[in-house]
Fold each of these.
Amino acid sequence: MRLNAWLARAGVASRRGADELIKSGRVTVNGQVGQLNTIVEPRDQVALDGRNLAKQGLAYVLLHKPAGTVTTAKDPQGRPTVVQLVDSPARVVPVGRLDADTTGALLLTNDGELANRLAHPRYEIDKVYVAEVQGEFGEAVLQKLRRGVEIEGGVSAPAEARRVGRGRIELTLHEGRKHQVKLMLAAVGHPVKKLHRPSYAGLELKGLAPGASRELTRVEIERLRRATGLVG
Ligand code: URA
């Protein structure tokens, strides 16, 4: 693993912050001053300002994101970030993003490899959304959503769509384009009033109140690793 990623995983700094520490010569690996291209092996001893650092373990947290929180690291408007809500000693970051007004299941982790794979369309990870929309709709609208609709960046990939109540549509997508659900529903003439994600990659919110989070179980982590080809 590159030294900057190692330092980020250890919770010392962001990757960019780690680059600065490395450039300033404050980081050593086995007593040698680390460089930007230094690779750290599991047995290596990394130190900052002469103090040995302990590598942090991998952490996986499921958050019930409440409305009004942002998925970015910092918000110019000063709204709380999802990272601030999650009380993890590890430096976890969100996998993908939800809009500030969207609620629901959000995974945060410091496992970069798993995060990249979960976000890759190739692994067809299910993202289930329930949207409250303007106007009543019929089967024709659901069919259009299933087949794909023209939105910014091209036609959406085939999806599952069903009616789950008056003015409520459940969509199951594998893609994760910016504002995708809102764009798709606006394109079929039913703008979103409220958006919730009850499930991400099979992880459900059961029992988690808005704003609450929990660590994934070993079984859940294994399931994600299997779903993304990290174990056979
Ligand atoms: N699609 C959207 O439009 N917004 C979200 O937050 C997630 C998916």
Note: The chain has three domains: 3-52, 60-120+204-227, 126-200.
Amino acid sequence: MEPLDRATIWPYDENGEPRAFYYSRYASPTVVDAEARLGELDGGEALLFPSGSGATTALVLSLLQPGDTIALAAGAYFGTGVTFQALAKWGLDYVEFDQTGPPPDGVQLVWLEAPSNPFLTMPDLAAAVAHPAPVVVDSTVATPVHLRPLEHGADFALHSATKYLAGHDDALLGAVVGRNIDDLRTFRTRTGISPAPDPAWLLLRGLKTLELRVHRQTQTATDLAARLRTHPKVVEVRHPGIGGLLSFDVADGAAAHRVETSTRVVVNATSLGGVTSVMESRHRWEGDRVPTGLLRFSAGLEDAAALWADLAQALDTA
Ligand code: PLP
């Protein structure tokens, strides 16, 4: 395993000149190791941030200026819109659009999500890259195992590395991968939105099993989505055929509450992408943006038959 270097400073060389590492807000060895590995996986240069939302904030602030507008995929991660709203008082605006078609004219940045969380739509990448504005793809849920956005012409891939990349629900971290991230690196150093070495080390560990985990989680989610589609208490199922995340609807909020609190293997908790299966009603966070009966399910590494038995007994309460 790569070493974990927690130092914040390193000595200058024998001539009194800074070496590659001198102060950890600029760069640190464990972070650089993790960035190199993620860059290889996504086919670009990677920069880590203290969280996915921190990555979003840094990228938007470094690319845009007051008066600019972002076209945000409708139904994308709720918190991304919340972050953009928090930036409104600095003159940044956003409009939502259906990412299965072309982005609207007159925007300075296009923000896609592959697949969107929790509606699980896939973006029309060809339509987006034909737009003159730079294109960001939040590929947290797809991971580089299923999608490498830069190969499709996107300018940046963004990850909440808290999810599949680190993969064990014990590291909060974000990442941006691009072809040229020098300006963003400078912006990160100057604004201090710099990552710590411990989560970067956990990311390095997580990346070693990423492919195995994501293939298994995709297989499990695909299997469960098919079973849910035939269940009489389930109104709608959303799963794009890739990734371990799915959502399904039961009749209403009361039924969703009974189902999410009745599982024994699946943990009733937020987030996604870890080795433990989790499920929650998203209405509690997102309000009327989602159906009251919508449950979001993230497949972990448990046995698929055991997960189905657990979901089936919980659905009996719906
Ligand atoms: N992007 C997506 C698709 C997410 O699901 C999340 C978190 O749930 C984020 C970004 C934000 O990441 P973080 O929680 O690491 O700030």
Note: Residues 51-53, 77, 79, 113, 117, 138, 140-141, 160, 162, 172, 174 surround pyridoxal-5'-phosphate (CB under 6 Å).
